[in-house]
Structure formats: C-alpha cells, structure tokens
Write a structure and sequence with these properties.
The complex is a heterodimer of chains A (about 500) and B (about 80).
Chain A lengths: L6 H42 L2 H21 L2 H12 L1 H35 L6 H30 L4 E4 L4 E4 L2 H5 L2 H32 L3 H36 L1 H7 L11 E7 L12 E7 L2 H7 L9 H6 L9 H24 L2 H14 L18 H31 L6 H7 L2 H18 L4 E3 L3 E2 H4 L5 H32 L6
Antiparallel strand pairs in A: 1-2, 3-4, 5-6
Helix pairs in contact in A: 1-2, 1-3, 1-5, 1-7, 1-16, 1-18, 2-18, 3-4, 4-5, 5-7, 7-8, 7-15, 7-16, 8-9, 8-14, 12-13, 14-16
Chain B lengths: L5 H15 L2 H24 L3 H5 L3 H13 L10
Classes of the chains: A mainly alpha (about 500), B mainly alpha (about 80).
Chain lengths: ~500, ~80
C-alpha cells in the first residue's frame, strides 16, 4: 500500500545521498578542471624551458594532489548507499550501471595509478616529454572517468537502450551505444565537464588574486591568471552552448523539469522566459494563483529554448499534470491508470508463472508491454505527485545561470587587467576575485540540484519513483547515518581546507 | 641502474617516489584512514548490501523486488 510506505525514510535516504553527492561534488570538478590547467602550464614549461613555469606547474600540481587525496573514494559511499538504502533501484539497474561503472573503475585504476605516479614522482626521473604526456593522460583519464558515471546518470534521466525483464525485475541493456550516445548523456557530459573547467579556473583566479593582494608570488599569480582566465572564458562558452542543449533535451525528454525550473505552470504559444522573479511557493498545479509575486519575462525565449522557435508551444506544469487535449499532451492524470494496469499485469504475470499457467502469463505479459511506458506512474497516488519542488528548482536554476554570467565577466576583467599590466593595482577586482571559487562551488551544487531534484519524483524517469526505489528500512537508522556523515564530512572538509590553506600560504618552492 | 630489469625499474621508481614524499605522506595517511573507515566500518556496519545480506540467491532477490513492485498499490484490485 502506498499509504504504508515510510516516506520519512525515503526523504532521509535522499538527504543522505544528496549530502554525500554534494560533498563529493566539491572535489570532482576541481580535479577535472585543474588537471587540464596543470597540463597547460606544463606545456608552456616544455616549450619554453623556463624553470619558473616548472615551479608554477608543481605548485598547482600540489594543490591538485591535496584535492584529489581528500576527494578520492568519497564516491564509493554513494555505491554503498545504493546497496543499503536503495536496494530495489540498485537491483533493477544493476545491468545498466554495471558496464559503465566497471569501465570507469578499470580505466581510472590503470590511468591514474600509472600516469598519476609519473606525474608526481617522475620529475627529473623520466623525460620531459613523457612527463608531459603523463600529465595529459591524468587529465584525459579523470575526465573519462566522469564520462561513465554521467552516462549512467543520464540513463536515469532518459532510460534508453534497455528492456525490462519481468522475470528478473531488472532493466537489461540491449544497445550500449544508445545508452552512451543518448542526447542527454552527451549534453550532460559536455555541460558537466565544461562547468568543472570553469570552477577550476575560478580556483586559480581566487588563489592568484589572494597572492596579488598580499603582494606575494606576483609573477606566478599573473601567469596563472592568464592561462586560467583564458581557459575559463573558453569553457564558459561551452557551458553556455551545452547548457542550452541540456535545456532543449529536457524539453524533449523531461518537460516537467523544464517547466519546474522556469516556474512555468500554464503552457503557452509562445512562452516567455522568466529572467528574474519571486516564486509564489503556495501556488499548486491547477489552482488560480499567480505563479510569481514578481517576474521579469523575456517574450518567446522559453519557446526558443525548448522548441528552437520563438512561436512554439511549451507545456506548463498544469498541462503535464492534467493533460492538454488541444496540444495532444497526455498528463500524469491520464498516465496513472495506465501505469496501474502495467503494475497489475506484472503481478498477474508473476502469479501465472508461479502456477505454471503459460497462457495467462503470456496474456499478462502482452498487457504489461503495452502499458510499460507508463509503468512508473502506477506507483503515484495522485497526478500532482509528478511535480518536483518548483521554488527550489527555479532559484537553483536562476542562481546557476546568473553566476555563470558573472564568471565570464570576472575572467574577462582579470584577463584585461593582466594584459594591461596593472592587475596588482586593481584591489577591488582582486577582492572580488578571492571568493569567486566559493561561488563556483555554489554554481556547481545549484546545477546538481537542477538536474537531480528536477527528476523527482523519479529515480528512473517515468519508470521508478524514489518511493519504490528505496529499501524498507527503519527511519531512525537512516536519519542517524545522515548526522554521522554530516560530522564525518565536516571533519574531512576541515582537514582539506587546513592542508590546502597551509600549502597556499607556503606558496611555490623557492627558486634554486 | 642499467642492470635493472624493467619490473625492477618500475619497482624502484615507485619505491623512491614514495620515499621522497613529504606532503604526500600526510595525504596517503588520510587516504588510508578514509579507506579503512569506509570498508572496515561503514561497509560492514552501516551499509550492508540489503539484498545480498537477506537473500541467498538471485532468484530470491528478484522475487523480493517484484514483490516490492507489485504490492505497493491500494487500487490494484480495481484494475481489470
């Protein structure tokens, strides 16, 4: 019975997963981006033979190593949580996740244990060329590791290339290329990696700005800024393009997510994009309240984002919940009874198989396949359950976009004043630059919220809601684990910040 | 060191690398402590694999999940 499900446990398990993922995601983007920035610094050293570039490379490599050491393996806790708190989900997706995660594990182990060692131990022990190649291999390996987990995540957003096996209760992969090349996977990978490059560039800007303010290591700081700001601007362009593509793909495959992060309740042709607004959080689907207390809308822009035309219809939350016959949109209200038929026919199939009634089993399976696309809706109590929290989505999305715009401006300003030769005199800019890394983390986490909270109530889009994906555990146990992890992650974070700050204060090794 | 064979060179490379570490020693300590906490404490006491712990065969695990999926609805009885 739906009423009997302990939603408290589900929410604690979600909170624990979110805590772990968001903590893990402080380190990952920095690893992904900083690995490239280090490779660029080392390339300049390789080409010029200038030892100061070598010292600069080693300095950033040291900070990269600290971040890697503190962050490494925190992702494993997520896998533990799957097995304990999300056992139904874990069982059902095992075949889909197995291949990408195995590839990730093997690739990460071989690339990182070999080239990582050369990168850190190999200075003066291998040729300059081999060392440079190793540094690039670490960058490529780290980013490839991210590819596989993002492919797996994209599959949860848009399950393709699979077939549900009613005998084993597992989604089985039938086309690995469809899974890897899913449009959501492609846009997710490009958007996530490019935004990671932006965050790493901000890290370099923040540390360098601090050095300039303190009038220490000024040459290192200026040189670091030139590369990081250039990389940051280029990466920001990719963030913009891939973000636009991600929104377009959401419109095609997860229209509820798009409607939620735009606070778009009533579908319209054309639809405007809310650039800024104050969400009316008491607004519910289908009621007469205004969606916003205050809004600044750009006409036609949401249609352009979602349909690639300024005059296209973009369904709102009401259309997706209750349906819209005129536009040919089936809502959750219409999908729920079909989903219940799918669930019922699965039960009938298993019962018939148990007693050996093949005719009845075949008939039930046929009914199940006909209604399979609505399977997940069979677990929803009411159509409104298909709506993610609009306020959280709207603010997360808009904060992310706003910060992305700010970052490009910051990169451009730093680059301009470095080339002008008076960056060290621009105290106001340096003061703005120091906290930029923390805003970079905020943008990353906001992006994660948009992607993952926007998928709610689904663990697997349209197929499995989180309330069914969970293990039926005691709420108290999961809640206690959550608080234990708050303490553990806080200690680890303090350790990282302390070690990192000590090394930043120490600066690069002195010229011999 | 030319007399060293390739595996010996690799061994020597790693050994010397680890020996020369300064900051790296602290970082490795953190990594090892973290891995011990994760696999010896968290994995064993906090995060047992529910299905592996409670069911001995894949068939039993599949049946459990199917049961979980098909016994969630209050209105199944009304479906034709």
């Amino acid at each position: 019975m739906v009423e009997a499900i302990d939603l408290g446990m589900v929410n604690w398990a979600r909170a624990l997963f979110a805590l772990t993922a968001m903590y893990h995601w402080i380190f990952v983007p920095l690893t992904l981006g900083l690995s490239w920035i280090i490779a660029f610094y080392e390339t300049i050293y390789y080409r010029t033979g200038d030892e100061s570039w070598s010292r600069l490379t080693k300095f950033w490599m040291k900070l990269f190593g600290i971040n890697f050491a503190i962050g490494v393996a925190t992702g494993i806790i997520l896998e533990f949580e799957f097995g304990t708190n999300w056992s139904n989900y874990s069982w059902m997706v095992g075949d889909i996740f197995g291949a990408p995660l195995a590839i990730e594990g093997i690739a990460a182990f071989f690339l990182e244990s070999t080239f990582f060692a050369v990168m850190f131990f190999g200075w003066d022990r291998v040729s300059k060329k081999f060392h440079l190649v190793s540094t690039y291999m670490v960058a490529i390996g780290s980013n490839l590791s991210a590819l596989w987990i993002l492919v797996a995540n994209a599959w949860m957003q848009h399950p393709v290339g699979m077939e549900f096996n009613p005998d084993t209760a597992r989604f089985e992969m039938v086309d690995i290329m469809e899974v890897i090349l899913s449009p959501i996977a492609v846009s997710k990978f490009t958007h996530t990696t490019s935004s990671s490059f932006v965050m790493a560039s901000l890290f370099v800007i923040s540390v360098s700005a601090w050095y300039l303010l303190k009038q220490r290591h000024q040459l290192l700081a200026k040189r670091s800024i030139v590369v990081a700001a250039t990389f940051g601007i280029i990466a920001s362009l990719f963030v913009g393009v891939s973000g636009d593509e991600a929104a377009y793909e959401d419109a095609q495959h997860q229209p509820m997510k798009l409607a939620a992060f735009e606070g778009h309740f009533v579908g319209a042709d054309p639809s405007g994009l809310v650039a800024m607004g104050i969400v009316n959080t008491s607004k519910k689907p289908g009621d007469d309240q205004q969606s916003f207390h205050l809004e600044l809308k750009i006409p036609g822009m949401l249609s352009l984002l979602a349909q690639r035309t300024t005059i296209g219809f973009v369904p709102g939350i009401n259309d997706l919940v209750y349906g819209n016959e005129v536009e040919g949109i089936m809502g959750a209200q219409q999908k729920i009874p079909l989903g219940k038929i799918a669930v019922k026919s699965l039960a009938d199939y298993k019962a018939a198989k148990k007693v050996g009634d093949q005719v009845k089993a075949d008939r039930a399976l046929k009914t199940f396949r006909e209604h399979e696309p609505y399977f997940g809706y069979g677990f929803l109590e009411k159509p409104e359950d298909a709506v993610p929290p609009v306020g959280v989505m709207f603010y997360s999305f808009h904060i992310m976009v706003l910060l992305a715009g700010l970052f490009v401006t910051i990169f451009a300003a730093f680059l301009f004043f470095v080339y002008k030769g008076n960056i060290e005199k621009m105290k106001w800019l340096l003061l703005i630059g120091v906290p930029m890394f923390f805003l970079g983390i905020a943008a990353q986490e906001a992006g994660w919220v948009v992607a993952e909270v926007g998928r709610q109530p689904w663990a697997i889009q349209d197929m499995l809601p989180v309330s069914i994906a969970r293990t039926n555990l005691d709420t108290g146990t999961v809640a206690a684990t959550f608080f234990m992890f708050v303490a553990l992650f806080t200690v680890l974070l303090i350790a990282e910040v302390k070690i990192m700050l000590t090394q930043i204060k120490k600066g690069p090794e002195e010229e011999k | 060191m030319n007399y060293l064979t390739q595996p010996a060179k690799v061994y020597s490379f790693y050994r010397n690398g680890f020996r020369r570490m300064t900051l790296g020693r602290s970082l490795w300590k953190i990594i090892v402590i973290k891995l011990v906490i994760m696999f010896a404490i968290l994995k064993v006491f906090i995060f047992p694999n529910f299905l592996k712990t409670n069911f001995s065969t894949d068939e039993a695990r599949a049946d459990h999940v199917i049961h979980e999926l098909t016994n969630q609805q209050s209105s199944l009885e009304n479906i034709e």
